[in-house]
Amino acid sequence: MNRRDFLKSAGLSAAAFAAPGLLRAAAPSARKLNILLLMDDQHRGDYLGAAGASWLQTPCLDRLAAQGALFRKGYTSVPSCLPARAGLLTGMSPWSHGLLGYAAVAKRYEHEKPRMFAKAGYRTHAVGKNHFSPMRNAHGYQSVELEEGFHSMDGGGEKCDYQLWFEKTAPGKKFNPTDLHYNDSRGGRVWPYDESLHATHWTAQRAVEFLKTYRGDKPWMMKVSFQRPHSPFDPPKRWADAYADAKLPAASAGAWADKKYGSIKGTMEKRTTASMGNFSPEEVRKARQAYCGAISFVDEQVGRVIAALEARGELENTLILFTSDHGEQLGDSHLWRKCRPYEPSVHVPMIVRWPDAMKLDARRGQVRDELVELRDVLPTLLDAAGLAIPAAMDGASMLNILRGRGGWRTQLDLEHSQIYDSKNAWNALTDGHHKYIYFTLSGEQQLFDLDKDPAELNNLAGDAGSAALLGQWRKRMVAHLKPRGEHWVKDGDLAVQKKPIVIRPGFDPRNT
To answer: Per-residue pLDDT for 334 more than 90?
Structure first.
């Protein structure tokens, strides 16, 4: 697909991408800023044109980065859907929001994004995936239009709004026409129906309709949350075909990964939802081709939402933030899906575009290297809206980075309780240059030099020359975990846990 066809399909003009800030909306109103939180699911941070992915077509997201700021060291502290969304909802770190692994978002928290904005006089609306439990627990959103993927099909549960719409709009058509499972990483299967029936298109269309029809006096805060590129990798054919001859990067694996996972072989056809697997280069490429197609389809639909915002005349009165809940291993280190401590899993896109109405004295198009995390999203949105950031929040406003204020964090904590295999429970620390990983059920350590070895191929924990550096990072982890008690640090050193700890002790998500 050439550039002109892409822009036409997204409902955008070529002028929109000619230069940062070239296209400007009508003069913004005098009311408070609107807030537009855009996110997708399972989008690894290096799969973005603005982040250097020359093989990938993401012009709409690249435009946001060119007119705002790209934080290229954006992370998710607990890289799976539910705990990541708890961080987005609350502005808290994992220990504070209570979810240390894959567990349902709490029934209610003291401070929640939509509830705070609604209390401040905003019209709040969510479109797409919330992944709350129960499904219709809106956590303060005044209205929701849900696309919860195949979760709405599990166990005969309640159907989401997208499925209800699909069954009404396309009676007799199969809801899952590719027969790919929800965590199915296979490529080579494309969406067979009209694109307007795809969940990605539906999510954007509902957001567009909100922007076309909302006539209230209140400023609005809208979250638009796309299910893709989370598997199933089922983009429209034109987007799968767009990468048929693309020079996609092959999966990489170091000696430690070969030793640990390299013997787990077979085919993706037989191991359709594998989280580990040394699959053939052909199968890996098919998966990556479909994944790229899914990202570009999301990007195109983001473009439709931005176009509707511009048509409304509120681009320059709306703070836009784009991110994802976690990444996707996509075969790197012979791993798939998420929940791992490695960059493909924990590194996510993070883009902030501020409007002219903010009068922020910051250069557009900058790329930042500060460590930012999902806990920083809510404080950033509150800051943009001129609302107070509660002291209980662990995150901070990324706008302070753009304002040139000092004091930003120099170390970030990452973790995930046991999942996928018996020993995959870990805590990690990074300063953006090195990453230390401690596996809590086995005592295994890993240390990577992210500057020299961004693909994490060489585990320095086995290098005698790095013993002193390893010891320094272990001490850092002891200091970080010591406040948690003897399950984590005992006799002054890291403990090996007998059982995984999924939820913070003393935290009851049912009654919060």
So the answer is: yes
Answer yes or no: is pLDDT of 10 > 60: no
**Tokens matching residue 69:** 């700021």
Neighbours of 282 (CB within 10 A): 11
CA angle, 250 as apex, 248 and 256 as ends, to 5°? 155
How close are the terminal C-alpha atoms of the chain, in Å?
Answer: 49
- The residues that bridge with 319 in the sheet, in sequence order, are 35
**Spatial distance between the Cα atoms of 441 and 422, rounded to a whole number of angstroms:** 8
* pLDDT grade for 156, boundaries at 50, 70 and 90: low
CA 170 to chain centre: 30
Distances (CA, A) of 421 to 78, 274, 425: 16, 11, 9
240-289 tens-digit pLDDT? 999 999 999 999 999 999 999 999 999 999 999 899 999 999 999 999 99
Task: Indicate the pLDDT class of residue 510, thresholds 50, 70 and 90.
Answer: confident
Active site residue 160: no
- List, in order, residues 6 or more apart from 417 with CB less than 8 Å away: 100, 101, 102, 425, 500, 501, 502
CA distance 236 to 297: 8
Active-site hit among 43, 60, 81, 480:
81
Q: Which tokens sit at 61?
A: 């997201």
Amino acid found at 288: R
> What is the CB neighbour count within 10 angstroms for residue 29?
14
More confident residue, 67 or 2: 67
CB 92 within 8 A of CB 507: no
Of the candidates 131, 151, 230, 347, the residue annotated as catalytic is 131
Q: How many CB atoms lie within 10 A of CB 464?
A: 7
Active-site residue, 198 included: no
